[in-house]
Amino acid sequence: MAVYTDISEVELEALLAAYDAGSLLSYKGIAEGSENSNYLLHTTKAAFILTLYERRVDKADLPFFLGLMEHLAEHGVSCPLPVRRRDGEVISEIAERPAALITFLEGMWLRRPAPQHCRQVGRAIAGLHLAAQGFALSRPNALALDGWRDLWRKAAPRADEVEPGLSEEVEADLATLGRAWPGDLPTGIIHADLFPDNVFFLGGEVSGIIDFYFACNDLLAYDVATCLNAWCFEKDGSYNLTKGTALLAGYQEIRPLEPAEIEALPLLARGSALRFMLTRLYDWLTIPDGALVNKRDPMEYVRRLRFHRQIRSSSEYGIGIT
Amino acid sequence: MAVYTDISEVELEALLAAYDAGSLLSYKGIAEGSENSNYLLHTTKAAFILTLYERRVDKADLPFFLGLMEHLAEHGVSCPLPVRRRDGEVISEIAERPAALITFLEGMWLRRPAPQHCRQVGRAIAGLHLAAQGFALSRPNALALDGWRDLWRKAAPRADEVEPGLSEEVEADLATLGRAWPGDLPTGIIHADLFPDNVFFLGGEVSGIIDFYFACNDLLAYDVATCLNAWCFEKDGSYNLTKGTALLAGYQEIRPLEPAEIEALPLLARGSALRFMLTRLYDWLTIPDGALVNKRDPMEYVRRLRFHRQIRSSSEYGIGIT
């Protein structure tokens, strides 16, 4: 939620000269995206987003991310389209950072999504899973089991500062998930970070999906599990069964889950909760107070973890309830 | 440079329903303005800025600020125009804060203004001074001599933490300025904060002046002195005579300064440098590290103060040099 890098109009006009995107009328740093700097541009042609990739993003991944957005947009997913320069490239450089100009999507992300929005999100994520089939590039999930273990190694010594006993809890989870993680479910490209601030709505319908910078190849049902974590819990930590039911039903309208995927949901949701808990915990312990990066409470995801641990059947998420 | 208050699309759509400004398409918190939260809105009609007034702004001053913008816009100054609601009001409320919807001005503020821009700014501030004549409301300058003394009383005990000896320096300045401050120069409404980030340019011309939240009644030449401080010093602290000459010449093209105003410039510039030094010093000492508010180095303005102290004649600023 910050602009890390300021740019001058001289630099920006020089960058725009490589595109056929009109002349610059205004640009404003916007308070969105937690990893990169984003500017909203108005030109004589249209509105655009210029994203400056800060050091958390590996430059080698940019062709995957931007190519995926282009592939998805071509296959009917409403997502930002990277604008090609006149020389055919999509990656530019400004202020010593790689940068991409992408189309601006109208729409608002919902601070308080309702069940009908969760159904739309379910449909949208399933649509994305199907549309991504056939995309030529692939990218392993850096935040899968091995990535969790790496993060945990760095965070473990101080985890009990956040809550006494947390260390023991996480060790047990990692052991369980390492043993039981499913290896034979349908895979494909997943968004991997589909939180409410990454989905725009307009007139009650999804108008756009943004922020593909965690997208990767992994279990499709793991993406659904992340959506349950991201959309179906209330501020007090309770699971909203109505929202979960709606989200799962929306997904299945477009891509029915296989029985093995349904059965794996509690484990996948637990893994997903652990993944977000670990990145939050790591940031919590390592980012100095007052840095521009948002620090979010890892305990919110510890509570989700505890919830998923005690699930006995996927029906408790609302699967198949209509 | 921050968005202090998040708003939901539900609140925002309810607010917009009071206006005839179209339906909401998108809104983004923008990283501009140091006192308030600002959102850039796209509606089916146009682009707008929604400003939420945070607690640093006195709600009782809003009719002055918004009325002034309306008056200036009506008198040919390119500045944002507050949009009236259907009930005729200009002040709304959202997220428990007073808020105003204003028109969006295209244009960019210049990170590295050149002399020709300084001339434009001189012309623009003179035009503003003339256009503001006849505005019915008035507002004393809360950051004039008495205000400086108040700030100093709070900051003085710790001023030497910033630089040893600073306390003694400032005491001497306050005494000199209190004794010699001119009482008989032309007065009127001044912008009082016309830094580069408050002036937009498009195609080499001023396309808009924004942020009237320090505007007040005071000596017109004091506003010119503030522009010298804001536009005509380089990053290394040196005074750029070419920029100063251009700014003063631009001003005088539209409103020639009286001999007494010219003579008073070194004192006014010294007072203005002290004013910005004091607010920075106060923030520096009181705002906790890591707060959202930008803390700027007071020493930058201590160096300006020292520069103005040794000026022997206004010609050293470039006045009358053509």
UniProtKB/TrEMBL annotation, chains A, B:
<keyword id="KW-0791">Threonine biosynthesis</keyword>
<keyword id="KW-0418">Kinase</keyword>
<dbReference type="Pfam" id="PF01636">
    <property type="entry name" value="APH"/>
</dbReference>
<keyword id="KW-0808">Transferase</keyword>
<dbReference type="InterPro" id="IPR011009">
    <property type="entry name" value="Kinase-like_dom_sf"/>
</dbReference>
<dbReference type="GO" id="GO:0004413">
    <property type="term" value="F:homoserine kinase activity"/>
</dbReference>
<keyword id="KW-0067">ATP-binding</keyword>
<dbReference type="GO" id="GO:0005524">
    <property type="term" value="F:ATP binding"/>
</dbReference>
<comment type="similarity">
    <text>Belongs to the pseudomonas-type ThrB family.</text>
</comment>
<keyword id="KW-0547">Nucleotide-binding</keyword>
<dbReference type="InterPro" id="IPR002575">
    <property type="entry name" value="Aminoglycoside_PTrfase"/>
</dbReference>
<protein>
    <recommendedName>
        <fullName>Homoserine kinase</fullName>
        <ecNumber>2.7.1.39</ecNumber>
    </recommendedName>
</protein>
<dbReference type="InterPro" id="IPR050249">
    <property type="entry name" value="Pseudomonas-type_ThrB"/>
</dbReference>
<dbReference type="InterPro" id="IPR005280">
    <property type="entry name" value="Homoserine_kinase_II"/>
</dbReference>
<comment type="pathway">
    <text>Amino-acid biosynthesis; L-threonine biosynthesis; L-threonine from L-aspartate: step 4/5.</text>
</comment>
<keyword id="KW-0028">Amino-acid biosynthesis</keyword>
<feature type="domain" description="Aminoglycoside phosphotransferase">
    <location>
        <begin position="27"/>
        <end position="257"/>
    </location>
</feature>
<dbReference type="GO" id="GO:0009088">
    <property type="term" value="P:threonine biosynthetic process"/>
</dbReference>
